[in-house]
Design a protein that fits this description.
Helix content is 37%, strand content 23%. The longest helix has 18 residues, at 183-200. The protein has helices at residues 41-54, 68-77, 90-102, 114-118, 135-144, 158-161, 166-173, 183-200, 228-235, 282-291, 301-314, 324-331, 338-344, 365-376; strands spanning 3-8, 11-16, 58-61, 82-86, 108-110, 123-128, 145-155, 176-177, 204-214, 217-226, 238-243, 250-253, 269-275, 322-323, 349-351, 358-361. The protein has 2 domains: 3-237, Vaccinia Virus protein VP39 (Rossmann fold); 282-376, 2-Layer Sandwich (Phenylalanyl-tRNA Synthetase, Chain B, domain 1), CATH 3.30.56.70. Strand 4 (82-86), helix 3 and strand 5 form a beta-alpha-beta unit. The strands form 4 sheets. A 7-stranded mixed β-sheet has the order 5-4-3-6-7-10-9, with helices on both faces. Strands 8-13-11-12 form a 4-stranded antiparallel β-sheet. It starts with a strand and ends in a 7-residue tail after the last helix. Helix 8 (183-200) packs antiparallel against helix 9. The protein is of the alpha/beta class. 47% of the residues are buried.
Length: 383
């Protein structure tokens, strides 16, 4: 395996030479003997940022690959008393050790099955960043986390979570999944729902404090509480969301049932169970927005700034977003610009990072429809 050196954040990193594993001029990180995805730099930048605020002391990176994530935490966050990294692949383990030495990092490196290891260790920040679904690691990750600690998970199998594959959604996340106009947001709420249900088995309550969507993945950070009552409280926030494909009517309730639209009689589509609670901690949002100025070297600095600005505003709204082109097509009008609809709603609506044609507002569907009809006559372009 030929290695080349690259740089990410403040660390130097040895990775398999992509040119040796390219096919027809194309390279997929999964083709290399050890996985390193440069497209996930923003994911790691944000994780460094959040860890710089919560300041964990014992960090467990359960699926380390090259070791980039754990090493960046150690170097850029600082004040970590113990870094534990792991990979089931012995080739990856050797590369992790080389990268630790290259960056002057000390810590423990294991060559173990992640679930087995997590069930033996305790930490206050557990990172689960798999290739695909994190589902099979959730229970052991929550078991490994101490009270008041944190667990962060990544999911890249959006086809399951946004209902492109209903069978995968049922198999991996135990979700009844029909495509709704706001499925991009429901996908992350479905992921959170799965995490809550897994943690409740051991009477732990993972409260989502920061969650976002970017390109092809979801990332969620949880703060871990303990106790059956706290777990039950989170379980009570799991709902089934309904939407009419014909007229756009939407509703939610505590249980799954086959329903018809009370307005037009069409069969409602359903998604759930999905978490119907806040997915951001406002105080943390303020802290990380302020802290970002200390990380002006981030490769994804501009993108993170834009993301945090949108999330800060949309965090004010509890309801899922409205997709303007979906509603406009049901009204048989042109899709208006978002700023025109927001202006019509008196400014009490915000852009959402989940969808470029979506807005977040506490106004009802009927009120949004009225504004779309009102402004669509003078606007024919999306956004």
């Amino acid at each position: 395996m030929r290695l080349i050196e690259t740089k990410e954040g403040k660390i130097r990193l040895l990775i398999p030479d992509p040119s040796e594993y390219s096919k027809g001029g194309r390279f997929d990180p999964s083709w290399a003997p050890v996985f390193y995805n440069p497209k996930m730099v923003m994911n790691r930048d944000i994780s460094v940022l959040i860890n710089s605020v919560i300041k964990p002391k014992i960090v467990i990176d359960a699926l380390s690959a090259t070791g980039v994530r754990g090493i960046r935490y150690y170097v850029e966050v600082g004040e970590i008393n113990e870094l534990i990294m792991n990979d089931i692949d012995p080739i990856a383990v050797e590369l992790i050790k080389k990268n630790m030495e290259l960056n002057g990092v000390t810590g423990k490196v294991f060559n173990r099955d992640a679930n087995s290891l997590l069930n033996e260790l305790k930490g206050d920040f557990i990172d689960i960043d798999p290739f695909g679904s994190p589902s099979k690691f959730l229970l052991s990750a929550f078991n490994s986390s101490i009270k008041g600690g944190y667990v962060a998970i990544t999911a890249t199998d959006l086809s399951a979570l946004v209902c492109s594959s209903k069978t995968s959604a049922r198999r991996k996340y135990d979700i009844i999944c029909e495509k709704l106009s706001f499925s991009k947001e429901l996908g992350i709420r479905g992921l959170i729902s799965k995490a809550i249900r897994e943690a409740s088995i051991i009477e732990k309550a993972p409260v989502p404090i920061f969650a976002y969507y970017h390109e092809y993945y979801y990332r969620v950070f949880f703060k871990i509480n303990r106790g059956a009552k706290k777990a039950d409280h989170l379980l009570s926030k799991l709902k089934y969301f309904y939407e009419c494909p014909s007229c756009g009517y939407r509703d939610k309730n505590d249980y799954l049932e086959e329903r018809k639209c009370p307005r037009c009689g069409s069969k409602l589509r359903v998604y759930g169970p999905a978490y119907d609670g806040p997915i951001y901690d406002k105080e943390l949002l303020i802290q990380i927005r302020d802290k970002l100025k200390e990380f002006d070297y981030f490769q994804s600095l501009v993108s993170i700034n834009k993301l945090l600005d949108k999330i800060y505003m949309e965090s004010e709204i509890s309801e899922p977003f409205y997709k303007l082109d979906f509603i406009s097509s049901r009204l048989k009008v042109n899709t208006p610009k978002r700023d025109k609809v927001i202006e019509c709603l008196g400014g009490k609506a915000y852009l959402t990072h989940f969808d470029e044609v979506g807005i977040k507002t506490n106004f009802s569907l009927d009120e949004v429809k009225e504004c779309i009809k009102k402004v669509s006559t003078t606007s024919t372009n999306i956004r």
